């Protein structure tokens, strides 16, 4: 069966008959889980298996936002709490090599948790660089306040995930850190010059172009395209993401249900694909919205299919060895120093 270029959520802890029928017919490339879908390791494992069964692909990617800090879908009591990105940047401030080791270790532990229940993609690392006066939607999710620190620790986290058999997603390309609004609620407009954006906001993404997956920012950059956010802007996609940044991996949209984007769900999907996104992402599990996204999403073929296949080929089927008890002890001991 052909696969369609979108990623879908589901409504609860198990699939409904309508969801099973829809996923079998629409054939999304992958799925994404949220807290509403999480109860216990056994339940998540069964849900992942059921999702893959609907599309008949054992390698269908299942995504989650498991950053740590404010954004962690799987948490206590069944899974440990993880620190925010900023916490890694605060550890051992005089020892950047130790910071890098700990950021990698934290992500390696997250990968261990995810693989155990069947999740194969984590929407991490956040490569946004916060700017003074910006909305705190990024805030402590960022690894630091300079492009260099964000890139170094972001790469460490991405490598930790890959070592554990989980694909990272670099986000939010080409940069959400300067936005004065939360794109979940409104459309941010950034007026910085292209020179400043390239020097500061876009820089971390240029340093991680070898990563398999990326997620767009629902942000307007007036110096590049004053009319459209990056997600639906052919100019941003061509000149910045594929051009200046030089990224040739699979680009997915941020969630199409976020209020930054206007129009019908079919229109938003078609606009994002026409702009150059490879994959549409819809998260909330609303059936009517998912149907409209599926109607706007093309079959996965051509260069987008190549990028998807290359991404999935990066999943390690034998993760790097890990003693999770020892690793967690080392991470906890380091975090205790800034508690």
Kindly list the characteristics that best describe this protein:
about 350 residues; alpha/beta; TIM Barrel; 8-stranded parallel sheet; 12 strands; about 10% strand
Q: What is the CATH superfamily label?
A: Glycoside hydrolase, family 3, N-terminal domain
Task: Summarize the biggest pleated sheet.
Answer: 8 strands, parallel
Number of helices: 12
Which CATH architecture would you pick? Alpha-Beta Barrel
Care to describe what's here?
- This protein is of the alpha/beta class.
- Helix content is 41%, strand content 12%.
- The chain has a single domain (4-336), classed as Glycoside hydrolase, family 3, N-terminal domain (TIM Barrel, Alpha-Beta Barrel), CATH 3.20.20.
- The chain contains 12 helices and 12 strands.
- The strands form 3 sheets. Strands 11-9-7-6-3-2-1-12 form an 8-stranded parallel beta sheet. The protein has a two-stranded antiparallel sheet with strand order 4-5. The protein has a two-stranded parallel sheet with strand order 8-10.
- α4 (96-117) packs parallel to α5 and α9 packs parallel to α10.
- The longest helix has 22 residues, at 96-117.
- The N and C termini lie far apart (52 Å).
Q: Layout of SSEs?
A:
Layout (H helix, E strand, L loop, with lengths): L3 E5 L8 H10 L1 E6 L7 H15 L6 E3 L1 E3 L2 E2 L12 H6 L5 H22 L3 E2 L24 H17 L3 E7 L15 E2 L3 H8 L1 H4 L6 E4 L3 E2 L12 H11 L5 E3 L12 H11 L4 E2 L5 H10 L5 H12 L10 H13 L3
Quick synopsis:
With 339 residues, the chain is α/β, with parallel strands linked by helices. It is built from twelve helices and twelve strands. Helix 5 (147-163) links the parallel strand 6 (121-122) and strand 7 (167-173).
């Amino acid at each position: 069966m052909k696969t369609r270029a979108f990623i879908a959520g589901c409504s609860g802890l198990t699939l409904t008959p309508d969801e099973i029928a829809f996923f079998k017919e629409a054939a999304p490339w992958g799925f994404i889980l949220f807290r509403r879908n999480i109860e216990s390791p056994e339940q998540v494992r069964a849900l992942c298996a059921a999702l893959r069964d609907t599309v008949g692909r054992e390698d269908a990617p299942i995504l989650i936002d498991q950053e740590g800090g404010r954004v962690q879908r799987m948490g206590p009591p069944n899974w440990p709490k993880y620190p925010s990105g900023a916490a890694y940047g605060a550890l051992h401030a005089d020892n950047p090599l130790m910071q890098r080791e700990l950021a990698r270790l934290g992500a390696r532990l997250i990968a261990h948790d995810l693989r155990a229940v069947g999740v194969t993609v984590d929407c991490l690392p956040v490569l946004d660089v916060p700017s003074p006066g910006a909305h705190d939607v990024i805030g402590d999710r960022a690894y630091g306040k300079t492009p260099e620190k964000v890139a170094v620790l972001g790469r460490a986290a991405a490598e930790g995930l890959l070592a554990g058999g989980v694909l990272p997603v670099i986000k939010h390309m080409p940069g959400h850190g300067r936005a004065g609004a939360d794109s979940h609620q409104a459309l941010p407009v950034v007026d910085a010059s292209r020179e400043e954006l390239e020097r500061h906001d876009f820089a971390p993404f240029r340093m991680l172009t070898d990563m398999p997956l990326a997620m767009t920012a629902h942000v307007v950059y007036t110096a590049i395209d004053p009319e459209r956010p990056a997600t639906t802007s052919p100019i941003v996609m061509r000149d910045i993401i594929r051009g200046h940044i030089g990224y040739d991996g699979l680009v997915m949209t941020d969630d199409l249900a976020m209020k930054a984007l206007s129009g019908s769900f079919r229109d938003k999907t078609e606009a994002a694909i026409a702009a150059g996104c490879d994959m549409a992402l819809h998260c909330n599990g609303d059936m009517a919205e998912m149907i409209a996204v599926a109607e706007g999403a093309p079959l996965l073929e051509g260069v987008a299919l190549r990028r998807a296949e290359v991404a999935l080929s990066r999943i390690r089927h034998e993760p790097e060895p890990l003693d999770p008890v020892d690793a967690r002890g080392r991470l906890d001991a380091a975090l205790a120093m800034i508690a």
